[in-house]
Amino acid sequence: MRVNRILATLVTAVAAAVFVGAAPAHAVDSNVKLQSRSDGRCAAVSTINNTLIRPVCTYSQTRWRYQPRSTSPSGRPLVKFQSIYNGGCMDTNGGSWTARVKSIACNAGPNQLWEQFSVSSGGRTYYVYKSWGAWTQLGQHLCLHAHSAHEERLDICDTTSYDQQWTRPAA
């Protein structure tokens, strides 16, 4: 009897470990562009240094694989973006304020996860992406920000800022 209870506990623990971090059942990977609400340009990988820039959305470097991963403790989706152009993942580059966002080799670290917030306005849904690495490692609320120099940086989260609101049209 005791062996059965121990075995049942062990099976439950293993099953829980397997499913922790798994994407929600309704979430699927998809090819998207990240289009800034502020200027209509899309996040892209620079061909020079793999930092994120924001050219017009027709460039091939503007295509991303949107990958839902899990949910945050507050119930919001945690997502990853992998560049279709170079195969790298959107990374917070250390996760500090004003850091430039880069596309680097994909890994399982928190600097490549983004907590997704939904903002509704005028019948449309926009998304704000908070760096999970900056939050969990540094305690900072830093979001993907469409900088005026047509590059992507981390800035203090403000869900009302058009510079931090993005759409995800299909790529």
Average pLDDT over all residues: 85
Q: Supply the helix-strand structural class.
A: alpha+beta
Largest pleated sheet? 5 strands, antiparallel
Termini distance? 56 Å
State Rg: 18 Å
Plain-language structure description:
The longest helix has 18 residues, at 2-19. It is built from two helices and 13 strands. It is globular, with a radius of gyration of 18 Å. The protein is 15% helix and 35% strand. A hairpin with a 6-residue loop joins strand 3 (44-45) and strand 4. The strands form five sheets. Strands 1-5-6-9-10 form a five-stranded antiparallel beta sheet. Strands 2-13 form a two-stranded antiparallel sheet.
Summarize the entry for a quick read.
By secondary structure, the protein is of the alpha+beta class. Helix content is 15%, strand content 35%.
What labels would you give this structure?
single chain; 5-stranded antiparallel β-sheet; disordered N terminus; 15% helix; 35% strand; two-stranded antiparallel sheet; alpha+beta; 171 residues; 13 strands
